[in-house]
Sequence to fold (522 residues):
Amino acid sequence: MLKLFKINLPHTSIRLNLIVVCEIILLLFLSLTVLFYFSRQALKEEAFKDAEEKLEGTVQHIDNILMSVEQTAFNVYFDMQGHLNEPDRMTDYCREIIENNPYVSGCAIAFVPYYYKGQELFMTYVHKKGHEAGESTLTIANTFGSKPYTQQEWYTTPMKTGHASWTDPLAEEQDEGVTLSFCLPIYQRDKDLETRSEKIIIGVLAVDVPVSLVSQAILSIKPFPHSYSVLLGHNGSFIVHPDEQKLIKQETVFDLQQSDDTQSVREAAEAMLSGQTGRKTFHKDNEDWYIFYKPFQRSWATEAAKLGTNELGIPMDKLGWSVGLVYLEDDIVGEYNHLVFLVLLITVGGVLLFFLLCRIVIRRQMKPLRMLTWSAQRIVDGFYYEEVPRTDREDEIGQLQNRFLQMQLSLASKSVELKQMTATMTQRSEDLKRAVGQAKGSDRMKTAFLNYMTTQMIVPSDLIEHSVTKLSNNYQDLSSAEAEYEVEVIKKQSEIILDLLDHMIEALEIEKEEDRKEVAHE
Fold:
C-alpha cells in the first residue's frame, strides 16, 4: 500500500489523505462486497421461497376453480339421474349450471343416438355471451360447432374412456373463444340395468370454462409487476398465459420460433411437461427470467368430487398439466440493485466528504509543521531571533515545536556569543595589525638608526685605522709630536665612537622598557 504512494506529491498532507482514504476504501470495498453477496443470496432465497409459496397458491387457486366447476356439475349430475327420461329438463340443468357458477360460459348435455325414441341425436346447449355481471345473456341451441357432436372431442373422449376428464383448450369447435371443457359421462341408472355390475354410458355432460376467464383469474395474482403464471396442457398448449393471442390461436410452447432465447424457454417447458418440480432460468427479450414450476395436482377437498371419484371411478388427479410462475429477475433483485447503487453513491459521497474532512483535519494538524518549516527557512536566511510560539500540545508535533523553540533560543544565544567573539577577535586583529605596523615602523626606525650610527662611525673608524696604520708603519720615523698627534686623533675618534655606542645602548634600553610596559598592559 505504501509503495503506491512513493511518488513526488507536493504535500505530506495529501499523501496522508490518500493513504487514509485508500485504506478506508479498501475496508469498505471488502465489507460491502461481503455484505452485498450474502444479502443478495438471502434475498434470492427469500424470493425463491416466496415464489414457491405463490406457486403453491396458484395451483390451489386453479384447483379451486376446477373444483367449483366440478362440484356444480356433480350436483346437477346426481339430480339428473332421476330425470334422464325427461328431455325437456336437460335445458334447465344446463341453465342451472351456468347460473350457479361464474366461471362457466356454456353447458351441453348430449345423449347417444336414439336414446330418446324418434330422435336420432339429442343435444341441448346453453351458453352465455359476455362474462361481466349485468351484460351476459343466455342462448339456447340444439347444435354445437360445424360437425355433429358425436364427432367432437368433448363427447368422444368420455364415451371412450368412461371417465370424467378435462379437455385441453378447444377452439375449432367453439363459437366464441377458447375453452376448457369438463366432460362427465352420463351412466344409465342402476334400476334400469339388468345387473348392477353392468354400467352403460348413455350421454355426456360437458361444462365449458373460458380459458381467458381462468387466465384472468390466475393472472390477477401478481407478486411482482412483471411476474405472471402459465398453465400448460399435456401437449404444451397454453391454458393460462398473459398473451391472449397465444390462447386464441391455441399456440403451444413448441410453436415458438427457434432462437437463442427460445431454446432456454423450450428447456424449461420440457422440464414442466415431464412432470418435474423445480426452477430454471431463461433469457427472453434481452432479460433474465426465472420460472418456478410443478405438476398440477388435484387436492380433493369437496365431498362431491370424492363421491364422483368413488362412484364413477374418475381419475381427474392426473390431468398432465403443469403450472409455472414466471419472475423477471429485475423484479426480484431490482430494488436490491437500486439499493446497491444508492449505497455505492452514498459511499462515494461519504468517501469524498471523509477526504475533505481528513484534508481539513490533517492540514490543521500539519500547521505547526508548516510553521516550523517556515521558521527553519528564516533561520537559514539568518533571522535567528524570530521565536516560534510555545504550544501546550503534548503530542509528537507539540514536542517537536517546543524542542524547535529551545533549539532556536539556544541557537540565538550561541549566535550572540559568536558575534561577541567575532567582535573581540576583530578588535584584537586590528590591534595586532597596529602592533605589527608599529613593530614594522620600529624596525625601520631601528634600521635607520643603526644605519645612521654605523654611518657616523665610518669616519672615526677610518681616521683611527689611518692613525694606527701610520704609527705602526712609520713609528721610527715619526717625531714625538707627530706620534702624539696621531695618538690624540685615535683617542678623539675613539671617544666619538664610544659616544655613538652609548646612544645606541640607551635607545635599546628605552625600547626594551616600552616592550615590557606593553606586555604588562596586555
